[in-house]
Specification:
- This is Tubulin-specific chaperone D.
- Pfam families: ARM_TBCD (PF23579).
- With about 190 residues, the chain is mainly alpha-helical.
- It has ten helices and two strands; from the N terminus they run αααααααααββα.
- The longest helix has 23 residues.
Length: about 190
């Protein structure tokens, strides 16, 4: 009798485990696509309102965290999300608060999907090295609020530096009548990395 009670309780445990497994595998796709698109599209309007911005960040984290166990479901949507957010960071008209907010969103995506997969989505042309380096050089390393921006820029710079080209091609003419205009690109990258 004791044995059959033990077997029944063990079988009940298996059923509970199966229910847990089924519940975690219920996601069949990225069902919050339109909500996420709307949320990302609203960043230019909300980046200055501190309370609204915090709510948007938390909402985005909640959406993305649902896919922590099945991040591959985000793959068909990663490109448009990344492109929308990078457009804000590349725009000359974007204020620093919008740039930082965009990088916070990019960090959340990279955290859920994994930086190795996410890195492949970052633009990695020769023409991207200077803008990323410029954005990186404008960062204050002591500002604890913008660490996600620095992290994402270092990630982006690291993938841009993997391009097989001679970095000295980006230097152009460094001297004009014996006066040094700016440091070589390699020295700038090393200085930023330090």
């Amino acid at each position: 009798m004791a044995l059959s009670e033990t077997e029944n309780s063990y079988q009940g445990g298996e059923e509970e485990d199966a229910d847990v497994i089924v519940k975690t595998c219920v996601l069949g796709g990225f069902s919050e696509s339109s909500e996420t698109r709307t949320l990302i599209g609203s960043l230019p309007e909300i980046h200055e309102a501190e309370r609204v911005k915090e709510v948007a960040i938390e909402k985005f984290k909640v959406i993305m965290d649902r896919y922590q166990e099945q991040p591959h479901l985000l793959d068909p949507h990663l490109e448009w999300m990344t492109e929308m957010l990078l457009n804000f960071t590349r725009s000359e008209n974007s204020p620093p608060s919008l740039v930082h907010l965009s990088f916070k969103f990019l960090f959340v995506i990279s955290k859920v999907r994994g930086y190795k997969i996410f890195m492949q989505l970052l633009p990695h042309e020769v023409s991207d090295v200077h803008p990323v380096l410029e954005l990186m050089s404008r960062q204050d390393p002591k500002d604890l609020e913008t660490w996600e921006t620095r992290y994402m820029l270092l990630l982006w710079l690291s993938v841009a530096c993997l391009i097989p080209f001679d970095l000295s091609r980006l230097d152009g003419h460094l001297e004009s009548e014996g006066v040094k205009i700016r440091e070589p690109i390699m020295e700038r990258i090393l200085a930023v990395a330090k």
